[in-house]
Amino acid sequence: MLAEKLDALTQMTAEHMAAPFPPGFRSLDIEGRDMVMLDADAYAYAAVVLEGPLDERRRAGLTRLIAALEKTLPMIGDEYAAKYYAHVCDMATLAAEIETSRNE
Length: 104
Prior knowledge:
Blueprint: H1 2-18, E1 29-30, E2 33-34, H2 35-51, H3 56-72, H4 79-102
Antiparallel strand pairs: 1-2
């Protein structure tokens, strides 16, 4: 099960890197969150999870990131950007699921 989730996360990170960043979202803040940083942080957490377990501080950061993404998603009015950030949120959520699986 863990191996399948890691494969899925690998695929999601590759898809993420291939997708163009949403036009107009550079320098955009939603709910006080910089959209570029949300994107970059989600990718970074996913990449680290693919290499091994997160420490306690990073697990807490990933949890906060997912909450921030879930809060900003409903406020994105652009169709492409909404799809892009839904993928970002799914990628971060899968990374958190992998971390939970490792700790069971």
